[in-house]
């Protein structure tokens, strides 16, 4: 006779997850479903005349060259922002970890930009690169480069990528530094005794051991580049010149809040949502296999 | 004294305070930042000081676009203000919102306030009237683009103040040869170089009387005349005579720093220029393109008007009407005009500024008014009324930037802008309540 073990059912686990479930419902599921519903409507700005149109907003999007072009732009922008900010952060963390004297001072300075609001970060870069007043165009003039991001789409893109990456470096740096400090010193010392130089130690020991952090940061940075860079673009270029810096999230804002085309804007945000969910799934399915925990 | 009784005392005081002055509050959302914001506050304070029944509370809501968006969002949440300042390109959107707006002329009549539509400058009110001639919103800050010039730089280069586009080119050449970075620049390019350029030369920007006669309008500003002028400016850009400096007022520093000798933009930059420019400056009428017209027609306005929103009670509307009467009085209007460079909206305010000798001591400050009232407006020069025009202006900005950047010819850029703009007009036509 098998004896069944019965645990008394308890409400405790449900209570413990309840706040998180509630937050997800209120701050994600509910607005997301609102956006879904809105994307099936064409209505005027004041919401006085509403027409239910099924998928027409999406059809309009897919037939719009400018919308399709902003996909490619977003891909380039996100990859460069994520790559640049993670690369620089890794480099800085690698150096900061070796610093003995004044370590706190350096770290504090490197973490600082994270506290800067996106719009302010944008404003700083706008000042530095203002074609008329900025310090960088003045220096670039000596190198024979005329800087005018009001006219030159490539330069405008470079500027928003720099500003967005700069702001995210601090965040990435923090995680990389923590990851590096959790590597046991004995491993690195053993490699040093075997005659591995700093670069070799980094690539064969440290880099593989912090791969979970790299993976986590990749997901976070892609999401950051997709969504949170809005403030920077708004402050620096307003999506211009032409449409050269209009990435998907900026277009959502511009069509919705400037153009007051709520249906079209909602349809775009649904597309964006699907895209980011798909991207995260792909990252977890395929990239994570290469990660050693 | 224990905390509890302190709290009690302050609560009693708060209640007493709110009952002692039972003023009806009137919210006024506006987009006037900086010094103009302070002037708006002063107008409200002065009005509040004239009586005890109503209190106007001005709230700065960001730039024009942000203010309009905020008001619409608030309307959808039923928390909207009584008065909101909307820029001229939002007119069609506001007009189409039949249940959301309270036409100003009707408000004044309902509240028993004296109102005479003929007291206003025709070029200003025609922009905001129904086809039947009912005024929908109260003009407040109207401006018109003018040609700002750096008098010292022109004199040093031996150039005259230009009156035609050929002269603009000649003067620019002289300025650049004399060591300036650029001859001419402009801002708000859709407004200055397409909307006003067309009106100035009596060209339509769209069918159906520029949209006044119906929502089924189509854009037509991609004509050979406008294209030829823009192409010429783009080639001036190649020669360094023209420099593009951004979409709104971003190029203002280029003028005030002495980089560009001439700048075409709103007359309302008067306040900023007089506080920033370290040189003698002046304003002249927009240049004429002699290959299109023998004489200029008239320019059209920009700036904004005050719209009254539906859904408040009678007492609040009474106060709103009283405030609008105060706001359009000659004294307030001429003060506002002289301080900011916006045009006076009533003939009386214009006359008052004249009799005060303002134009004698500040020559050129009546340029915008003269431009606006140069001739009786035609169907091409009354103004424009296109739906989704905020977005259409973005499209125009994008396409013109492709032209200045050398990626497109003027005709290609204008054709693309018209095609994309027409799509937006058709979308608007669907959502607008057909009138």
TrEMBL record, chain A:
Lineage top rank: taxon: Bacteria
Protein name, per record: sn-glycerol-3-phosphate transport system permease protein UgpA
Entry's family note: Belongs to the binding-protein-dependent transport system permease family.
GO biological process per UniProt: transmembrane transport
Cellular localization per UniProt: Cell inner membrane; Cell membrane
Membrane-topology annotation of the record: Multi-pass membrane protein
Main location: membrane
Upper taxonomic lineage: Bacteria, Pseudomonadati, Pseudomonadota, Alphaproteobacteria, Rhodobacterales
Subunit structure: The complex is composed of two ATP-binding proteins (UgpC), two transmembrane proteins (UgpA and UgpE) and a solute-binding protein (UgpB).
Alphabetically ordered keywords of this record: Cell inner membrane, Cell membrane, Membrane, Plasmid, Transmembrane, Transmembrane helix, Transport
Stated role: Part of the ABC transporter complex UgpBAEC involved in sn-glycerol-3-phosphate (G3P) import. Probably responsible for the translocation of the substrate across the membrane.
InterPro entries per record: MetI-like, MetI-like_sf, UgpAE/MalFG_permease
GO cellular component: plasma membrane
Domain ABC transmembrane type-1, first and last residues per copy: 71-283
UniProtKB/TrEMBL annotation, chain B:
Domain of life: Bacteria
GO cellular component: periplasmic space
Predominant subcellular localization, coarse grouping: periplasm
Pfam family, one: SBP_bac_8
Gene3D superfamilies according to UniProt: Periplasmic binding protein-like II (3.40.190.10)
SUPFAM superfamilies linked: Periplasmic binding protein-like II
Keywords: Plasmid, Signal, Transport
Signal peptide: 1-22
Subcellular localization(s) per the UniProt record: Periplasm
Subunit comment: The complex is composed of two ATP-binding proteins (UgpC), two transmembrane proteins (UgpA and UgpE) and a solute-binding protein (UgpB).
Family matches, as PANTHER family: ARABINOSE-BINDING PROTEIN-RELATED (PTHR43649), SN-GLYCEROL-3-PHOSPHATE-BINDING PERIPLASMIC PROTEIN UGPB (PTHR43649:SF31)
Record family assignment: Belongs to the bacterial solute-binding protein 1 family.
Purpose of the protein: Part of the ABC transporter complex UgpBAEC involved in sn-glycerol-3-phosphate (G3P) import. Binds G3P.
Protein name: sn-glycerol-3-phosphate-binding periplasmic protein UgpB
Species whose genome carries this gene: Leisingera methylohalidivorans DSM 14336
């Amino acid at each position: 006779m098998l004896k069944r073990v019965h645990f008394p059912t308890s409400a405790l686990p449900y209570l413990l997850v309840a706040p998180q479930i509630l937050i997800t419902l209120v701050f994600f599921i509910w607005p997301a479903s609102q956006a879904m519903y809105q994307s099936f409507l064409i209505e005027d700005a004041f919401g006085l005349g509403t027409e239910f149109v099924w998928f027409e907003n999406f059809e309009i999007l897919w037939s719009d060259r400018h919308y399709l072009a902003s996909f490619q732009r977003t891909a380039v922008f996100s990859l460069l922002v994520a790559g640049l900010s993670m690369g620089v952060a890794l480099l800085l963390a690698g150096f900061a970890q070796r610093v003995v004297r004044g370590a706190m001072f350096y770290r504090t300075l490197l973490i600082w930009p994270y506290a800067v609001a996106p719009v302010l970060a944008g404003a700083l870069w706008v000042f530095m690169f203002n074609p008329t007043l900025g310090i960088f165009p003045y220096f670039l003039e000596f190198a024979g480069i005329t800087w005018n991001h009001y006219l030159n789409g490539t330069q405008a893109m470079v500027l928003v990528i720099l500003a967005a990456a700069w702001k995210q470096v601090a965040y990435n740096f923090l995680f990389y530094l923590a990851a590096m400090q959790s590597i046991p010193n004995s491993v690195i010392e053993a490699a040093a005794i075997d005659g591995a130089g700093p670069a070799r130690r980094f690539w064969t020991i440290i880099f593989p051991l912090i791969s979970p952090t790299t993976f986590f940061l990749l997901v976070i940075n892609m999401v950051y580049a997709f969504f949170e860079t809005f403030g920077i673009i708004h402050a620096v270029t307003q999506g211009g010149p032409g449409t050269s810096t209009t990435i998907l999230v900026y277009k959502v804002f511009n069509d919705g809040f400037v153009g007051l085309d709520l249906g079209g804007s909602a349809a775009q945000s649904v597309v964006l949502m699907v895209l980011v969910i798909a991207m995260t799934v792909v990252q977890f399915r395929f990239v994570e296999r290469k990660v050693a925990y | 004294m224990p905390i509890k009784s302190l709290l009690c005392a302050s609560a009693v005081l708060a209640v007493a305070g709110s009952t002692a002055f039972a003023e009806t509050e009137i919210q006024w959302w506006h987009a006037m930042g900086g010094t103009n914001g302070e002037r708006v506050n002063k107008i409200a304070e002065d009005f509040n000081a004239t009586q005890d029944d109503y209190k106007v509370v001005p709230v700065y809501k960001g730039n024009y676009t942000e203010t309009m968006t905020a008001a619409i969002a608030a309307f959808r949440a039923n928390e909207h203000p009584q008065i909101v300042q909307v820029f001229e390109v939002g007119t069609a959107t506001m007009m189409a919102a039949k249940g959301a707006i309270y036409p100003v002329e009707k408000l004044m009549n309902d509240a028993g306030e004296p109102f005479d539509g003929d007291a206003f400058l025709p070029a200003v009110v025609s922009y905001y009237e129904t086809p039947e001639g009912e005024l929908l919103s109260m003009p407040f800050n109207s401006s018109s683009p003018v040609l700002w010039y750096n008098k010292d730089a022109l004199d040093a280069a031996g150039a005259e103040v230009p009156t035609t586009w050929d002269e603009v080119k000649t003067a620019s050449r002289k300025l650049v040869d004399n060591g300036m970075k650029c001859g001419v620049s402009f801002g708000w390019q859709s407004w200055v170089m397409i909307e006003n350029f067309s009106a100035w030369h009596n060209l339509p920007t769209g069918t159906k009387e520029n949209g006044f006669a119906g929502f089924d309008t189509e854009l037509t500003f991609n004509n050979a005349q406008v294209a030829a002028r823009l192409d010429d400016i783009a080639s001036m850009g190649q020669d360094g005579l023209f420099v593009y400096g951004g979409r709104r007022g971003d190029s203002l520093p280029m003028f005030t720093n002495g980089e560009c000798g001439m700048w075409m933009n709103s007359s309302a930059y008067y306040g900023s220029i007089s506080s920033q420019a370290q040189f003698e400056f002046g304003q002249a009428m927009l240049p004429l393109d002699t290959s299109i017209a023998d004489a200029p027609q008239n320019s059209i306005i920009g700036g904004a008007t005050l719209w009254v929103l539906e859904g408040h009670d009678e007492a609040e509307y009474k106060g709103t009407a009283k405030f609008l009467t105060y706001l359009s009085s000659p004294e307030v209007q001429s003060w506002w005009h002289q301080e900011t460079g916006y045009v006076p909206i009533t003939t009386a305010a214009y006359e008052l500024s004249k009799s005060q000798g303002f134009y004698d001591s500040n020559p050129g400050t009546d340029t915008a008014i003269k431009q606006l009232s140069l001739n009786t407006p035609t169907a091409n020069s009354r103004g424009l009324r296109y739906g989704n025009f905020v977005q259409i202006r973005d499209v125009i900005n994008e396409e013109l930037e492709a032209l200045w950047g050398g990626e497109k010819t003027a005709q290609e850029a204008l054709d693309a802008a018209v095609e994309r703009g027409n799509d937006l007009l058709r979308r608007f036509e669907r959502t607008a309540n057909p009138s």
